[in-house]
Amino acid sequence: MTALPRPGILSAVNKLKDLKVLLLSDAKNSFTNRMEQTLRGLKAEVDSIATRKGKEMISAVNHFNPEIIVCPFLTARVPEAIWSKKERPCLIVHPGIAGDRGPNSLDWALFTGKSEWGVTVLQAVKEMDSGEIWSTSNYPVEKDATKTSLYVGSFSDAAMSTVLDALCRFQDKIPPTPLDYNHPEVKGCLQRAMTDADRTVDWTKSAEDVLRMIRMSDTQPGAVGEIFYQSLPDRVFRLYDGHLETGESSEAVRTCLSACKPGEIVGKRNQAVLVKTGDGKGVWIGCMKKNKSDHPELKLPATLALPKQCAHDIDTISGRCDYNNIWVQKADSICYVHFDFYNGAMDKLGCERLEQVLDDVAKMEDIKLVALMGGDRFFSTGRLIISSYLQFISLYEPYITLLKSMFHVRNFCLYFSHIM
User: Fold this and answer.
1) Which of 56, 82, 194, 406 has the fewest C-beta atoms lying within 10 Å of its C-beta?
2) pLDDT reading at 335 higher than 70
3) Which regions of 298-387 does DSSP assign to beta strands (E)?
4) What is the phi/psi pair of residue 406, to 5°?
5) pLDDT at 384 over 50
6) How far apart are CA 287 and CA 270, in angstroms?
7) Considering the entire predicted model, what is its pTM?
8) How confident is the model at residue 405 (pLDDT cuts 50, 70, 90)?
9) Residue 137: Cβ within 10 Å count
10) Is 125 helix (H, G, I), strand (E, B) or coil?
11) Which residues 6+ apart lie within 8 Å of 199 measured at CB?
């Protein structure tokens, strides 16, 4: 039996020059932008459109007249008028291993604890995700990966090489491989769409179980959790930005955890709240929003998402915690300043805390170089703007103040770890 087509054999150098490629997607994101720029760098002729409307897709195809169509991020159905023309293939970038089908592939991979997952470029056909395979590849999944970190990291890298491989095969007139569930390399299956019930947190379970729910629902739509606190009227929230708290670093934290029941708010720190889990540990929740379907709610730092009086009443945890989104590391005369804000968004209090850290670093006489490390996925995506039906608060000024402090640390050379 012939092996499935995989990247690593064909080279895209000089092969995609002048190839007319149309990119269809729901919206522009980091991956669609990366694909467009990569193809342009390889001298392909590229056009792109972000839409969910079939008529607009058809219009874009008729206007550009591409040789091949690629859908890097598309959840809407491709019109039959587009995919039915076999001489002009329409390729779907599916975020799953060969044979995997369904709308929540990355979510299920994290939910089931997969140590390896994949991406498959397949031909668009009437039945979702069941077309012929143009190329497929696998990648490792880190234990603490979130859906977003997986998408912008390992998935994006693998998907880019897989798409290029598929385009090279098209140029070389190598036909795709039919999807055959009897093939030993086809290990995926059809998976149903996830529901809120699948994403609902059970606080009586372990902290790792709770974190898995939050990580797999990261950014959109968020895990669902009922949080208990004495003065909290609406208890069901969407939960984001979860972090483990073992209590091993501080007796004060262990004491706070032992005094609470699973699901109860233990305390707060730097706009995050700590919730007790069934194994005696806890989970820090960095961001939340009310779980209401009648009107959209904003995703906010946890203490801002809670009613003001409730957030005020929660005790501040003073002991050393496992989680902190701002920290420093020193090595000889170098100080590394890390600031890992959720999705890179810096609100007023976050800016002020980081400014204070930089002021403290400026007083360290033995430090000659300050390296601004940013976070794991982002250096900074800028200011966080908080709005509601009653008010609009711009946090632009604190962000500018912070940037000024970055460039005015006395007697230091500043090094940025990310390209801004």
Assistant:
1) 56
2) yes
3) 300-301, 326-331, 334-339, 345-346, 369-374, 382-383, 386-387
4) -65, -35
5) yes
6) 11
7) 0.86
8) low
9) 21
10) coil
11) 213, 216, 217, 221, 222, 223, 224
